Amino acid sequence: MLSSETIQNIINVLSWTVLIYMILVIIFYSSLYLISAQMVRKQRFRRKESSYLPLMRSLYTRPVSILVPAYNEEYTIVTSVQALLALDYPEHEVIVINDGSSDGTMDELFKMYELEKELRFPRILIGSQPVKHVYRSRIDARLIVIDKENGGKADALNAGIDYSSYPYFCSLDADSILERDALLKVMKPIVESDEDVIATCGSIFLVNGCTIEGGEIVEIRTPKQRIVLMQMIEYFRAFLFGRLGLSRFNMLLIVSGAFGLFQKAIVVQAGGYKEGLVGEDMELVVRLHRYMKENKIDKRIEYVPSPVCWTQAPETMEVLRSQRSRWHRGLAETLWTHKRMIGNPRYGFVGSVSMLYFFLIELLGPIVELIGYFIIPLNLLVGTLNFEFGVVLLTVALLYGSLLSAGAVLLEEWTMHRFKNVKELIRLYLWSLTESFWYRPILVFFKLGGLIQFMTGRGQWGKMERQRLDEVVTEETKEKTS
Fold this sequence. Notes:
With 482 residues, the chain is an alpha/beta fold. The chain is built from 15 helices and 12 strands.
């Protein structure tokens, strides 16, 4: 039985741990925000839309293979392919990898694009589960469909790399829609750096609530569901100052699987996508950094804020829980796989700063936050903290995250100005201020679930509910597609 003094000492240690942790997190996030705001300011005045037009005619604009792994995507695949074939880009091919779908994904592609079998003998660079057939569209020869046995997303992407024709590939989720000039924009840093940049990514925005016609976003609106609205705000925060700030010092560890551009040769040298992980996109980027540092290759991985990819977000708590638990499990798997890099100065800023940040703040953050939810009120009750100081500390803890999210909304408006309706922007901003009071605690428990899954070796991929991309997102639409 612990004595009251021992219990009091434990509470004090935990309290100071939470306090110091909060201070470090505030300093780190504030630094990222200031760096990102400065970069946004420079890009806002330096980069004009017309500056991308010469890339359409430039000999240095490399051809790109767009890889679209698809598993049970009958509701989204046609609209997604339609948008990809319509991209403003001088030379690209679209490779859909049907990873053993059990629904009508292949039927939709056959019906829309008149596929016919093609003899194709690729050079196997990485390898994958057996490919049953390869098809090419009679309507648009740029569309290739690989029908293979199920092996997971990483395996499907590896198959796409083996069958691709071009020196760069873009990985894209089957429920995503690229803006027409997005591919040009993510290629620009590669062209301007004379290929010293080997991977880039753009921003991911949520398509929920928007109107789509012919594979293009024709009206941008905020979603009605509060849970989706908060995810939209969260995406602004994660991309516009999280990844932008890390990219400034070549410390970016995540190129989203929903939209990322890679130099094929270095990905093949590093071994391609690793199978058996749920966070294959992050693991590949970390391995690329590791490969470059260990082989003394001086290349960069950059985030470009202006190109946008639109994707669907979970609309129910159950699907959101499954997604966030999976993401956190993927983070844990990646950090465990490359644990020797954490805090290791041999890997430069990536090891000593970025990997340490993802370990201490992103991975362990939910544990510390959960402790904080109980410790600070407990201290106030037993009187170990000065009451006024405790109230201020609790208020800062609750408000700081919300203020950062509100700042991210302002950054989005400053850089992209996507929301023309002022009411929509005000709604976004006001809801961002509520994040720490309900949405963030929910995510804490979802992430802890992912951590438990990693530690116990359990957990499934989970199911993401889809709806057709060519319809307005309304209650009537949801009823038709559920």
